[in-house]
Design brief:
Number of domains: 2
Largest sheet: 6 strands, mixed
Helix content: 25-40%
Distance between the termini: 53 Å
Number of helices: 11
Strand order of the largest sheet: 5-6-7-3-8-9
CATH topology of the largest domain: Rossmann fold
Radius of gyration: 25 Å
Bound molecules: adenosine-5'-triphosphate, magnesium ion
Number of strands: 13
Order of helices and strands: EEEHEEHHHEHEHEEHEHEEHEHH
Shape: elongated
CATH class of the largest domain: Alpha Beta
CATH superfamily of the largest domain: P-loop containing nucleotide triphosphate hydrolases
Length: about 350
Amino acid sequence: MIELEDLTKRYGDKLAVDGLSFTVRPGTVTGFLGPNGAGKSTTMRMVLGLDAPTRGDVRIEGKHYGELQEPLHSIGALLEAKGVHGGRRAYDHLLCMAQSNGIPERRVGEVLEMVGLHDVARKRPKGFSLGMGQRLGIAAALLGDPRILMFDEPVNGLDPEGIHWIRTLMQQLAREGRTVFVSSHLMSEMAQTAEHLVVIGQGRLLADTSMSQFIAENSRTHVRVRTPEPERMLDVLVEAGLRPATAADGALEVDGSEAPRIGELAAANQVVLHELSTQRASLEEAFMRLTAQSVEYHAYAPGDVQAAVPGGPPGPPAGTAAPPQGGQAPPGGQAPPAWGENWRKGRRG
Ligand SMILES: Nc1ncnc2c1ncn2[C@@H]1O[C@H](COP(=O)(O)OP(=O)(O)OP(=O)(O)O)[C@@H](O)[C@H]1O
Ligand SMILES: [Mg+2]
């Protein structure tokens, strides 16, 4: 278990982490999400005692990191894969870590095997690819067979096989009753891996909830109905007090009801249905809605007049009024620079 209480970190005038209080519990994979610069890595560094909090506290199984005896048995972490001595062989790097934590040498071979680096164990990490470096970092995290695992963007640079492997690994570690805390920007991957989510924006807690609840609360779920008699079905739905919208392909989209009720209405009125499906929003959509106001670094496409930042509360279905997602000015209302403007300014300056 990792417990944060009012955890705060200030760098000069930048409040990187702002009063975070939450608990990461064992037995489940907890995803840690937030836009670039939200404070995820800073939070993780404070968990490991690599950065001192300006205010507040963080404890691992009730202790500060510095109080843990043989910490690799309590918590294994992958922060930045760059934190490896490039000239020391992969095997020796892990052996050093093992020896300083009372871990037997055979475990080094075991973890190298687990992460698929057995064949390059005698090679130096400075010649490793990004994904190989990540695998070595993951091997180091697993070395002490720890009860808590914390990974900062572990899938960064991994190939599809590697991504699949780490997803399965994290879920297995959680099933064994361990605490697994992982950050990632890959929403589709996170949606498949984590059961619980902690979301932050500009250092502050935005959500601490289950994956399913997070998606339900921050996005729109609707029922899609396709029928050869759309006008009749429309009347049936309106008579039942619902407000269906017509999608671009002619299907009806109904908010505020469930598929079984709509199916029963269709049956009672003898309307033939070709499709009746519940459409759930993705984690990506829910995340972008929740964090729209906390995104600090916006990118603009050539020719953009307005930033494409989805935001605001879930809107009505397409076809009724405003679309659920739409372009809007970035927070602060500033128009982005015209494409090439900065480059031209740079040239002039
Ligand atoms: N050592 C430091 N000195 C000064 N500012 C820092 C330092 N480390 C982080 N920051 C600032 O703190 C804020 C949070 O950074 P952090 O790296 O924790 O964000 P993050 O959520 O991990 O972002 P990303 O998704 O891009 O990895 C940023 O504004 C960053 O510039
Ligand atoms: Mg980070």
